[in-house]
Amino acid sequence: MARLRLVAVTLVLAVAAAHPAQAVAQRLDAQDVLVGWNQLILELVRHTPTYSPPVASRAFAYLGVTAYETVASGDDSLVTLAGQLNDLDPLPTRARHMAYDEAILLHAAMSFGANAFFGNTGPTGQRAMDAMDSRTATMLAEEVDPEIVARSMALGTAIGEHILQWSLNDGGAIIENLGFPYDFETVEDPALWVPTSRVAVQQAPLLPGWGHNRPFAMPENNSCALPPPPTFSEVPGSAFYVEAMEVHDAVVNLTDEQEAIARFWSDDPMLSPTPPGHWIFLTLDALESKDADLVETADVLARLGVVLADAFIGCWEAKYQYNLVRPVTYLNRLVDPAWQPILITPPFPEYPSGHSTQSGAAAGMLEAHFGENFAFSDRTHQDDGLAVRHYSGFWEAAEEAAVSRLYGGIHFRSAIEQGLEQGICIAGFTNALITRSRS
Amino acid sequence: MMRLILGLSLLAAPALAEEPTIPRFEDVTTRAGIDSVFWGEWEYMVGGGVAVFDCDGNRKPDMVLAGGTAAAKFYRNTSALGGALSFAETTSGLEMEAVTGAYPLDIDSDGMMDVVLLRVGENQLMRGLGDCRFEAANADWGFDGGDGWSTAFAATWEDGQSWPTLAIGNYVDRNEPMMPWGSCTENWLHRPGETQFGAPIPLTPSYCALSMLFTDWNRSGTPSLRVSNDREYYKGGQEQLWRIEAGSAPELYGPEDGWQRLRIWGMGIAGHDLNSDGYPEYFLTSMADNKLQVLSNIPEGGAPLPVYADLAYARGVTAHRPYTGGEIKPSTAWHAQFEDVNNDALADLFVAKGNVWEMPDFALLDPNNLLLQRADGTFLEAGEVAGVASLLTARGAALADFNLDGLMDLVVVNRHANAQLWQNVSEDAGNWLAVSPQQPGSNRDAIGGWIEVRTGDLTQRREVTSGGGHVSGVMGFSHFGLDDAQDAEIRVLWPDGAEGDWQPAEAGGFYSLGRDVPLARWVPDAN
Predict the structure, then answer these.
(1) What mean pLDDT, rounded, does chain B reach?
(2) For residue B5, is pLDDT > 50?
(3) Nearest CA-CA partner of B64 in B338, B436, B419
(4) CB contact under 8 A, B236 and A383
(5) Strand B450-455 to B458-463 pairing
(6) What is residue A2's predicted lDDT score, i.e. its pLDDT?
(7) What is the C-alpha separation between A150 and B398, in angstroms, rounded?
(8) Tell me: the pLDDT tens digits for A369-393?
(9) Chain centroid to CA B338: how far?
(10) Nearest-CA neighbor of A314 among A398, A426, A228?
(11) Judging by beta carbons within 10 Å of its beta carbon (0-12, 13-18, 19+), is residue A85 exposed, middle or buried?
(12) A43: chain B residues, CB-CB within 8 Å
């Protein structure tokens, strides 16, 4: 669905480059601009080396709010998030009685934001952003009063700049060494996380300070704190041992369907749009399938970005509070030295499951908007050769994403179940945001 | 042999075996007359190779360096035997633009080296005419050069064929500016027909190959095609191993064969039997951590599955970040090549390093690695102390003995900067010998064969290949360090499976080894 719109956008831009006169007849609207930039952002997330899942969630939040506030600046049905999101001050506004072009304005804001948040992407990403930027701008400016073009570009850029400045002191703006501390010492405690790969840069855990970042809609980083995981034990029959054996047995006895689920939600950084990007992708499809308009699209993407970002902050706060050992470490030492998960064990502590928290949060927010029984198809990984999966609702997808980590052999059940619970809690704060005017 | 003990700052993590002799390299680029830059923007962000081979009969390696948007440059080797390296840029016919990489290969088996030019646009087979003159031969040889962005090459002689099979790897669709991700173009397998090359066979799925190597990984007698792919651009891709059987369609190894999915920014392949078990190990270059793949679980009767353990971390060859130059961001690795640079009978590893293109999350000042193998199989980083830790933006490279003094020299192609040439001027290196197998008829250089050199209990093995590295290749003598040994035995396992006899050889010699003929020592002309 969203892919069809993207293809259309790309084709139009290609035609615009080659035949400007023809392109005028197919002028992109603001909705095209918003979807087009989001699709490019999904690729940039995949291809920018610093974009681990937490970092990706942060970009989705800021860019979602950028688009939302840009649309809201000219639509009285939307309520600004300034004053609702932590430390977000009132944004630049439109000049009274002056005309703006909605598509140009949105393009300017998204272009500024994308270049700001992906300024460190590689040469191909830079080339793609340049192409999107120049072609879209050229096409949109056709037959529009230059003064309106300039005014719209200026305001869009100002909104983007405002959001960028808001982002800079949240604790997550600077990512060094791909997010891995340069120095890290493991603690001699079998209950605690130790590196699980032989990749040199992953001998330290990913982004240990991410849980201290400023949240968006959550009042505090630990507003959705979790109970501790089962008490660590190496004793057969203990709750911890039982959970570990459940992971062991799940991998050993994996069915084809379970393996398909594990791989579908694997969402590895640099090889996919990451877990938060997965939810952005399927939501773009869902919006397209219900013919959502610009206002609804901007509203949903902003709130989804916010809830995903808060989910990673809350989850990471808990991960480094408990610093729990991964299944592969425990099982190799105590049960079977040869046992291996089918997924790559992520390089950070186990509890809670990040995919579970963020999927629970996303589903909690999306259900509040679309309803409990909004059936949809998930085509996120179609280009990578994975089959489309179908769901009767967002919660079903979230539960599947969560349990996929058990099938994949990288999480215990408690991390999954408590992750989903934490996600629901976090979604509550996003769902309390007021985006629509009551008038 | 004298051993140097390095300061602690130079020790790699898994250290503590006896430290290897540190070779000494001297940058002789300017003095030797090398002035070649690999230019170009997006379509030349990868590539930049060099082909090293002799084309004037004196067996001193000459070379052609890719120039990207500039013309390639050919340099005739004018070095005196054992003297200072010296080259003269001369017109050869290889001076084409849009060249990304080059490999030497005697395609028509006429005894005169030909050259494969990989290009942005039509690839060119260049027929050697003798005395370092070349002419385009695509039309005469029925070779379809295509119109791609070619970035990998490998060659083999399939059973029963008098002409080689060429594999060419292609990169992304260069005409796709908006969404190039997922646009990997088809790799090609050019098999010989009756009199000319046939139409290229697509090696699909293709995943943006940056290195290819025909290699007999399981010692079955039939090389397979390893392909290292850049995960930046593929979707649903991975590293690949193709089963290439004469008369059959290419077939990918899959999970049912034991092949395990690996997804890296694959940029270069170097193979070598490091542990003398008869099977090659493979070093795969990437961004951040690199891989050293060692075959797991070799059954007593052979016929292993293609299951590899990554021992890069354990052996100290992750080479994942700079060790000098002031930066500690992750590295970007390209060409890799195993050679014994200190002649201690242990293969060492050179890795060319350089940022892709102003990627701020990766080191911009990224020194090349020279990793010296210790007796316990771990490696010591010696790039800086040996003198090859250039901070320019390296891509392709080649190690070769340019002045025939028994020491491996080094040439590196840099993007947007002059290529560099280092002369190995080590004074305390071990003994050595060099071997060139030659067979009559087709495949004169015995590609697909193995050279074995035995000293005492140690048998060193080198597979004769054409391909791998990063768009760079060498053809000529194969070099073996002998440490303290004064003599050795040599034999060749020929591509058709025939085993040559062990023949005695003295250290310090160049040897031509033919089929069923006595070993012949070749003595270089002093001039």
Answers:
(1) 95
(2) no
(3) B419
(4) yes
(5) antiparallel
(6) 46
(7) 54
(8) 999 999 999 999 999 999 999 999 9
(9) 8
(10) A426
(11) buried
(12) 179, 181
**Does the distance separating the beta carbons of A13 and B236 come in below 8 Å?**
no
Closest partner residue to B320 among A47, A119, A201, by Cβ? A201
Distance from CA of B328 to the nearest CA of A (A): 8
CB atoms within 10 A of CB A99: 12
Q: What are phi and psi of A362, to 5 degrees?
A: -60, -45
Within its chain, how far is the Cα of B189 from the centroid? Answer: 19
Residue B328 DSSP symbol: -
Closest by CA position to A223, among listed A349, A311, A309, A308: A311
Strand ranges for A283-420 from DSSP E: 376-378, 389-391
Angstrom distance (rounded) from CA B65 to CA B55: 15
Say whether pLDDT at A13 is over 80.
no
d(CA B125, CA A53): 46
Which of A3, A40, A42, A124 best tests the B interface by mutation, with the highest count of B CBs <10 A? Answer: A124
Share of chain B above pLDDT 70, in %: 96
- B252 is written with which tokens? 């990918």
Residue A271: pLDDT over 60: yes
Phi, psi at A389, each rounded to 5° = -115, 150
Q: Tokens for B109? A: 């088996």
The answer, yes or no, to whether residue B216 has pLDDT greater than 70, is yes
Distance, CA of A352 to CA of A361 (rounded, Å): 13
CB B216 within 8 A of CB B223: yes
**Phi and psi, residue A7, nearest 5°:** -55, -40
Which whole-number Å values give the CA distances from B420 to B23, B30, B35, B220, B423, in the listed order? 17, 8, 9, 39, 10
The answer to whether residues B155 and B166 touch, using CB atoms and an 8 Å cutoff, is yes
Residue B422, token pair as written in the block:
């280092």
Task: Answer whether residue B16 shows pLDDT above 90.
Answer: no
One-letter amino acid for residue B497 of the chain:
G
Predicted pLDDT of residue B525: 82
Which amino acid is present at B192?
P
Q: Which residues pair with B414 in a beta bridge?
A: B394
Kindly list the residues from chain A whose CB atom is less than 8 angstroms away from the CB atom of residue B356: 122-123
Measured CA distances, A139 to A23, A31, A104, A115 (Å): 7, 15, 10, 19
Q: Which structure tokens are listed for A309?
A: 């970002």
Task: Show the tokens assigned to A52.
Answer: 């681990």
Strand B50-53 and strand B62-65: the pairing is: antiparallel
Measured in whole angstroms, how far is the alpha carbon of residue B19 from the centre of its chain?
26
* Contacts across the A-B interface (CB distance below 8 Å): 89
pLDDT tens digits for B437-486? 999 999 999 999 999 999 999 999 999 999 999 999 999 999 999 999 99
- pLDDT in the model for residue A187: 87
* Whether residue B492 has pLDDT greater than 80: yes
Single-letter amino acid, residue A28: L
Evaluated on CA atoms A268, A271, A273, A279, the torsion sign reads negative
User: CA quadruple A48, A52, A54, A57: dihedral positive or negative?
Assistant: positive
User: How confident is the model over B182-201, as a mean pLDDT?
Assistant: 95
Which one of A10, A120, A271 has the shortest CB-CB distance to B179?
A: A10
CA distance A419 to A322: 13
Is residue A379 less than 8 Å (CB to CB) from chain B?
no
pLDDT at A8 (0 to 100): 55
Strands B510-514 and B431-438, how do they pair? parallel
Task: Answer whether B207's CB lies under 8 Å from B217's CB.
Answer: no
Query: B124 burial class (0-12, 13-18, 19+ CB within 10 angstroms)?
Result: buried
Average pLDDT, chain A: 94
Query: Residue B401 has which token pair?
Result: 């003995």
Q: What is the pLDDT of residues B317-365, one digit of tens each?
A: 999 999 999 999 999 999 999 999 999 999 999 999 999 998 999 999 9
